[in-house]
Specification:
Layout lengths: L9 E12 L2 H9 L7 H14 L1 H4 L8 E11 L4 E12 L4 H19 L7 E11 L6 E2 L4
Antiparallel strand pairs: 1-3, 1-4, 2-3, 4-5
Helix pairs in contact: 2-4
Length: 146
Amino acid sequence: MVNVGDKPETRRVARASGTIRMAPSTLKLILAGGANKGDVLGVARVAAIQAAKRTGELIPLCHSLGLTRVAAEFAAEKRRSAIRLVVTVETIGRTGVEMEALTAVSVGLLTVYDMCKAVDRAMTIEEIRLLEKSGGRSGRFLRKDA
C-alpha cells in the first residue's frame, strides 16, 4: 500500500455512476415492487452502501477507510429501459474515496442483476465511471460529460 501517513487529513468526496439496461417488462416489475426476491432497489441500496464500507477488503492495496457518508440514489430511465445509480461517498482522511464510490456502484448494479436474472438474463451493466472527486493534493476532478 502507498504510505499516506504524512498527508494531511482533508474532506474527501467522490461521486460515481453506472447504468443497468433491461427489458421494459423488467423495469416495470422493479418499479412496481413485483420481483420475487423483494424490493430490488431497497436491497441494492443497502448492497451499495455495504460495498463502499468494505472496499478495502475487496480491492488489493486499497486502504480501509472510515466513511462519514454513503448515499446511493437510483433513477429510472424509462425511455432507455434502464436504471441509473449514482453513489456519493465522503470521508475526512488522508486518501480519496473514488474506489469506494466505484465499488458501490458496481455492487449495487450487480445486486439489481442478481435479483432480476430469473426474468431477464440479457440485462447489461454499462458506463460505470467516476463523475467527480474533491479533496487532497490533486484537488477537484469533474467529468466534463457528467
